[in-house]
Amino acid sequence: MSVTSTQRMLTGNKAVAEAIAQEMERDPRVFVMGEDVGRYGGIFGATEGLFQRFGGERVRDTPISETGFIGAAIGAAAEGMRPIGELMFVDFFGVCMDQIYNQMAKIHYMSGGNVRLPMVLMTAVGGGYSDAAQHSQTLYATFAHMPGLKVVAPATPYDLKGMMTSAIRDDNPVLLMFHKQLQGLGWMAPIDASVGVVPEEPYTVPLGQAKVVREGRDLTIVGLQMSVHWALTAAARLADEGIEAEVVDLRSLVPLDKQTVVNSVRKTHRLLVVDEDYLSYGMTAEIAAMVAEQALYDLDAPIRRLAVPDVPIPYSHNLEKFVLPNPEKIYKQAKELAEQ
Amino acid sequence: MAVPADKLKWMYETMIKIRHYEEAMVDAYGEGKYPVFNIGAGPVPGEMHLAAGQEPVAVGVCAHLRPDDTVTAPHRPHHHAIAKGVNLQRMTAEIFGKVDGLGKGKGGHMHLFDPEVKFSCGGIVAAGVPHAVGAALASTMQGRDSVAVAFIGEGAANAGAFHESLNLAALWKLPVIVVIEDNAYGISVPKPASTAVPTNEVRASAYGIPGVRVAGNDPVALYQVAQEAVDRARRGGGPTLIEVETDRYLGHFQGDPEVYRDKDEVVHLRQRDAIQAVRQQMVADGMATEEELQAMEQRAYQVVEEAYAFARQSPNPAGESALADVFAL
Asked: Is residue A135 among the annotated active site residues?
């Protein structure tokens, strides 16, 4: 085997920051606004090094004024800029949801397509580190529910860079969620999935294409971000017992790549959907309903869903562990499903 | 500082246009809604917030604006739209929900977008203020000298978006003018019941920017104040907050029983009608003859009539077009 190129490894946060930097180099309309995105480099490192490279005009620290600066990003986008706003934690959406739901998501439609908002709102999601109910949510479905927003949630450094680049170049408002545990931050328990191969040159990963990250014949596990990595861990253990799980990383909630999911279900005839968001009215329900509509008769067993059981994310470690999905729970559900 | 004759004539003709537009809308909106008021019926369904009496605010400010300057307006937007030069036929078609509307019938009266003249409005109180801040930021970053004006009602001055936006605009010294239309009521709540400050321009001091109040629904006084604010913004001097005392002749929305104010109040307000005052002033100053004034009035009426005719003849959009325009292609 010959090494044809350097396999450069980056953490998730550096992959995001590199995408933004390269797009800022390429397009003077791109700029960043948010709390602590300047010298600090973003609480989750998504703007690391950008202030030093591009200065305070294009990498703007804002007051704690989410309505103000997300609204301003909308206004600037309507005038031909390509702003990137950062909502520090997705949980903070409550103070600025009008700008996201009623403004950012709807203006293109209400204008009959005459006003474009080429902007990105990036935000940190996810728990697992006892940050409790107001700093641990993913809220995937909350945003995916609103027509007019593209909602993407990459699971690897490679996808983080490629999808951020696509998001910046997209003429629509894109909500890009990065998972805190996948940023590779020094102050969080390290996990292997937060580091990965990332090419140095700019590239895009399309928004709205799921990816089969592990092929298998016995059942399909659908997830995104941490659920994918948990599913892969569970799949390795299942394989030891002769059960081959296919793992689908949705990567994008809107647009949703239904075909990849349906194709996988037609192959495996069994489906487990895993979500780090709340169970009811969420992504697992959407995927289950979609499969029931399009591939019901391909199923050999009822669809299973594993998600946060409709409680706020608790603080105490044991409580949080109880409500969040993990490889052990996925393994158990998948094994039962495969043997059903 | 007098208002130049051409500007005053434009202000007068535009106020006539707005007044006639709003009065015609009272009738159009009423079609098909009675005897028992049905908000969803008739050629113009939904809520309708009209601005008769508030014309001075729109013309006093927009007289200084160019097509490349941005205006964001609230739920009561027709006077701003007309003064900013929004395509009146397509605006009216939008309000009638027609295919030729500014938003192909998807927006309606509270959601008018005309990027040609950089106008937008929306139905959420104070939400347009940060958009104006962003437009001003874009102007600055793009090296242009265009400014952005956010019109809001006095009730919006109590919303978080207003304060966050003023702070941002002041911090970044952006070319923004926030114009508060104080028509004394937030729907039914009188101003003294919603804020402890008697007038809102004092809030400018909290952000270290100039704040000016214009009393008496006076378009000439506002013209002068707005000129200073727009000039300052254009040369990089930062934002200004202006509060204008103005008069709402009609209800908060059409169909408003207006139980919160005396029936006589509007009668009194109409006695200081700015349109008539400007007309009399122009005659007294010899700025325009009676014939000229009548010609202007005729022209304004005709433009409005043509807009309504255009809207009425435009087709309704096909149902399935509701599926388009969710995303830019």
From this structure: yes
Note whether B48 contacts A: Cβ–Cβ < 8 A: no
Cis peptide before A255 (omega within 30 of 0): yes
> How many angstroms from the chain centroid is the CA of residue A1?
34
Q: Is residue A127 part of a domain?
A: yes
- Considering CB atoms only, which of A71, A113, A150 is closest to B131? A71
Dihedral angle, C-alpha A158, A160, A163, A165, nearest 10 °: -90
CATH, residue A59: 3.40.50.970
Asked if A171's CB is within 8 angstroms of B328's CB, the reply is: yes
B118/A79 touch (CB, cutoff 8 Å), yes or no: yes
- The string of DSSP codes covering B240-297 is EEEEEE----S-SSTT---TTS-HHHHHHHHTT-HHHHHHHHHHHTTSS-HHHHHHHH
Is residue B329 packed enough to be buried (19+ CB in 10 Å), middle (13-18) or exposed (0-12)?
A: exposed
Mean pLDDT per segment of 10 residues, for chain A of length 340 residues?
70 98 98 95 97 97 94 97 97 94 97 97 96 94 98 98 98 98 91 96 98 98 98 98 98 98 98 98 98 98 97 91 97 97
Rounded-to-integer distance, Cα A168 and Cα A176, Å: 10
Using the beta-carbon criterion (under 8 Å), do B131 and A81 form an inter-chain contact? Answer: no
Residue B101 to chain A, least CA–CA distance (Å): 8
Total domain count, chain A: 2
Closest residue by Cα to residue A311 from A277, A334, A339 = A277
Choose the catalytic residue: A108, A135, A179, A229.
Answer: A135
**Nearest CA among A86, A36, A68 for reference residue B137:** A68
**Is the ipTM of this structure higher than 0.90?**
no
| B102 in reach of chain A (CB within 8 A) | yes
Tell me how close the Cα of A192 comes to any Cα of chain B, in angstroms. 36
Task: Identify whether A169 is part of a domain.
Answer: yes
- Identify the domain containing residue A65 by its residue range: 9-197
Give me the residues of B, 62-101, that contact A with CB < 8 A. Answer: 70, 72, 101
What is the number of CB-based contacts under 8 A between chain A and chain B?
A: 157
The 8 Å CB, 24+ separation contacts for A312-321 are A312/A133, A313/A127, A313/A131, A313/A132, A313/A133, A313/A136, A313/A137, A314/A132, A314/A133, A315/A130, A315/A131, A315/A132, A315/A133, A316/A130, A317/A130, A320/A127, A320/A128, A320/A130, A320/A136
Q: Do B131 and A172 touch (CB under 8 A)?
A: no
Instruction: Tell me the residue length of chain B.
Output: 329
Write the pLDDT tens digit of every residue in B30-68. Answer: 999 999 889 999 999 999 999 999 999 999 999 999 999
Looking at the partner chain, which of A67, A150, A172 has a beta carbon nearest the beta carbon of B130? A67
Residues 131-160 of B with CB under 8 A from A: 131-139, 141-142, 148, 160
Smallest CA–CA separation between A298 and chain B, in Å?
Answer: 30
If one counts every other C-beta atom within 10 angstroms of the C-beta of residue B262, the result is 9
Round to whole Å and give the CA distance between A65 and A72. 10
Q: Could you give the 3-state DSSP secondary structure of residue A307? A: strand
What are the sequence ranges of the domains in chain B? 5-310
Residue B244 backbone phi and psi in degrees, to 5: -120, 125
**For residue A217, what are its two tokens?**
């014949």
Q: A310: which DSSP letter?
A: S
Closest Cα in chain A to B149: A75
Q: Which of B113, B135, B123 is nearest to B65 (CA)?
A: B135
Facing A102 at nearest CB: one of B118, B127, B138? B127
Q: Would you state the CATH architecture of domain B5-310?
A: 3-Layer(aba) Sandwich (3.40)
Q: Are both A192 and A233 inside the same structural domain?
A: no
- A91 and A153 assigned to the same domain: yes
